Amino acid sequence: MSMTITVLTVRQFLRSRSIFVVLGISLLAAILAGIVQAVPDENSIRDLRSIFSGLYLNLFSGTLLPLATLVLATAALGDEIEDRTLQYLTLKPVSRLQIVFEKLLAVVAVLIPLTWFGIVVTWAITAFGNVDELRDLLWPALASSLVAIIGFGSLFMLLSLFVQRALLIGVFYVFVWESTLSQFLPGIRAISIRHYTQSLFTRLLDDPRISVDGPSGESTVVITIIALLVICTALATWRLQRMSLE
Amino acid sequence: MLTKTRSTTTVEAPVPAMRGMADAEQATIELNQVSKWYGDIVAVSDISFGVGPGVTGLLGPNGAGKSTTLKMMAGLQAPSSGKVTINDVEMRGKPQAYRDLGLVSEHEVIYPFLSGRDFVRLNAKLQNLANVDKAVEKAISLVDMQSAADRKVGGYSKGMRQRIKVAGALVHDPRVILMDEPLNGTDPVQRAQLIRLIRELGDSGKTVLVSSHVLVEVERFAENIIVIVNGKLAAAGDFRTIREKIDAHDHEVRIKASDSRKLAAALIGQTSVQSVRIDALGRIVASTNDVPTFYRMVPVAAQQQQVRLFEVQATDESLSSVFSYLVEK
Lengths: 246, 329
What we know:
heterodimer; A: 246 residues; mainly alpha; 0% strand; B: 329 residues; alpha/beta; Rossmann fold; Alpha-Beta Plaits; 6-stranded mixed sheet; 4-stranded antiparallel sheet; 13 strands; 33% helix
């Protein structure tokens, strides 16, 4: 695979305003962490661990990661359909599966550095002066964020092939389903990507003081996200094969 | 070979644009009872024709269904009914078939952050060509864009974008080339270059189908034409035969000149001119029933009157009327 489409899509992203929107979203938690640190109260190490894990579990996993992913995943194919450049890819001896896969790869490739930057900055501000005590929190956050990026990326790219206002519907989904309903309704929790992101974070951290309700095991998380990726990619490929293009 | 007869449409049989029967090496496009509708709107209605090697013009007024027809040929859109094949293959869902097809769409949008060379290279890479660099340079030189190839496409003029799109469509040396209004936005020099290229492609044995709504433009490169009006096939076959029928009908031509009144006065006395008026924008609108003589006479009259010509073009209403006349014929 030449990765020509991935490289093209990364170049598209790097020249669009979306990249700044994603960066801004990723750094929102860092601003909150900065405000907390600026308050003159003395925070214990336990407080600081709770602050970072709270920001990650409540803000990053359910709101910021899906929103950042939504911006790029819906643009990857949706923008090309809208401005009619997708035909430069579809009128080539390239399978639709390859187009979908390479587009998703570009989304992941751009999101990883941007969201990880936001997580690392948030962690660095929270852990300022107590790096050793909070070091173990960082890698579970980075690793579990991959689950969110792949899961939401697959889902939102598929959405952009079925509806015209994918961004708007995606925002509604993030705030209603992932951020609100999945927090309070156990049945919905199991079918929200947020739950699997949080589960992996707490499992990898292995700190009994930081937990979520009914966490899934690591293998369940991995299998679920791979299944979501396969189903969404297959449906997106099917859709791309059948849709009329301008 | 397809022959189609409708109650109001007589399509000249057999397949147009065929320079003799196509053999196994020759590329052909065939449409068999093809229709396309969007909800209640019928864009293409039950058309059948075939196209073989050489240049064929796809002629019709704006909104006639030319672009929809080309999109169905390229597999971008599925026909609502009927069958479209290129080299006996239905393009939709068969990516490998695109090794033999190049499409120049009418849309101008190209990735603006790419240079012209990068855009052609993108096309070459996606075609999995063995020698990408050589193919890219050859395609760029075909459209005479060497000097501007390293500039960003976003800064190109409309004509330059058209030419680089042509280079992108030709980079893999396809046997079948579809071009949707490729001369739009080109200046006279670029237009002449593109027309020469189109003719050379046809002469080299490729199957080239070029859509246009400008009759005199198609005349310069196409040996055969297919005329589509209101989504229906109005005529197909040898250009001259159809041209004679078209010329027998009254034409309305709009002329933009430096001194419309002076030129209009000179036109009134000409035998090929039936009527002359000046429209609200100060342009001459002349009616003629002898199109070839009229088009030869106008520049001469303008020169004699020392009037500069800016535009000489058939009005859209006139074209629709002429094409509709073909349907009725």
